[in-house]
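step 3/5: co-fold with iron/sulfur cluster
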Amino acid sequence: MTWKHFFTSSIGKKFLMGATGLFLISFLVIHASINAMIFFQDKGETFNHWGHFMGSNLIVRTLEIGLMAFLLLHIYQGLSLWRQNHNARPVKYAVTKGDGKSKWYSKTMGLLGTLILIFLIMHFYHFWVPSRFGGMASIKPLAETTLGQEYNSQSVHNLYQEMMNVFTGSYSMIIVIVYVLGCVSLCWHLLHGFQSAFQTFGVNHKRYTPLIKTIGVVYSVGISLLFASMPVAMYLGWVK
Amino acid sequence: MEHYHMNLTLKVWRQKNNKAKGSFETYNVKDISSEMSFLEMFDVLNEQLIHDGKLPIAFDHDCREGICGMCSMHINGEAHGPWKQNTTCQLHMRAFKDGDTIVVEPWRSKAFPVVKDLMVDRSAFDRIIEAGGYISVNTGNAVDANAIPIDKKNADDAFMAAACIGCGACVATCVNSSAMLFVGAKISQLALLPQGGPERESRALNMVTQMDKEGFGNCTNTYACEAQCPKGISVANIARMNKEYIGASFATEEI
Ligand code: HEM
Ligand code: SF4
Ligand code: FES
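step 4/5: write tokens
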């Protein structure tokens, strides 16, 4: 049993999917919490402060490398599993009904994931690229802002303004719709993924499984609603 | 239930051999009794075909009492047909009504190549069992069955897992053609009992490795297998297999 053997076996690959998926789930909690600070109605002061912390803290930046690696691994592995599973039945059935007994979103994880991926490309282009690589080549740097006294009048990237620009600027309606659709895909992906990851790890328990399923539904719906509410609220001018 | 007769249209997959490209043939059968089993209805059809000088339809069956796991057939989109926790041989014609059209296909999976018509080669399952689905015991007098105390819950769970008849309906039903319900059951029935203890690690490692070699797809926890399994094998067995395999993979010192 070499490490390669484990990580290329069917269960090893699933283990990687579950582990990277759960890591992404934990990341989203932090991401959503910090973003939700735009709702403080303080012109993004708190949000910009924490955005700056996430972008400058050495530990967070190191974790970011892990996050990117895990995300890429999850995407690569997910798409390759999808292809493999598709090829495992070269001649399709003329009639299928039996597999209708499973939830549709459990069978379309690859598709839902791909929709998330398309959203992510747009999302990275909007925020991650300018904040990390702004100023390089032809990438526009982010505007700066000076925080108030309580934050020692620090000068930081104005990520709040960037959000405003994206969600209220040109093509904002289309952008907001794509963001909301991204959140809908995420919701379905996680409705299956959250509980599925535990089954993958071998947890199928009369007492814990119902609890895990409930937490999974609350988390998936909650996080997706929270994320979707941000572009919508900005677009409608509710955030000041 | 009232006894009745019916006329049916059957669309059956015919395929000469593994290499040939198959296609559906349409047949009409008349005066089928509602008390016949599905396979008896096929017997009637085959008699008719032989009488007409045509080749009968090849299909698998053996016990015809729902215990051997030989019968297969994907009937109107469902492995073993429309009844819950039931095998094709135990499906009765009262599940259908006069004038119905029934589409019958073989199990479809790369790992279960079609041998002829509705027969598929399920020897992949045999090779998985050979890889570790057994316990090694010394010959000699049989040991008293009650000599080893076993937790009641474990004994029950092992018994439930051992109900798997190896029919392959789980593979046939799964969107991913995954064999994990079958392998999960076969690993569980031994992992839960003390007799399975000594070979526990190697069993999980070897059986999963063989499963992967056979070209089955990967489980994505859609659970259609459990819903379609004629023996109601629980997906808890898949979780147990995952735990056994992951645990053994990390623990083993073998390279
Ligand atoms: C970016 C594109 C993404 C793609 C292409 C993708 C693809 C997939 C696929 C195909 C699966 C099913 C694999 C399986 O069950 O065997 C899966 C599972 C999963 N995904 Fe994603 N995904 C993406 C993003 C995400 C994100 C952003 C998260 C979390 C925030 C996530 C969390 C999960 C979880 C928890 C599972 C369940 C793992 C398991 O069943 O053990 N995925 N993903
Ligand atoms: S798990 Fe169920 S469907 Fe699969 S082979 Fe065993 S009895 Fe058949
Ligand atoms: S023929 Fe034996 S189970 Fe159906």
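step 5/5: annotate
The pocket of iron/sulfur cluster (ligand 2) is lined by residues B 164-170, 181-182, 185, 229-231, 233 (CB under 6 Å).
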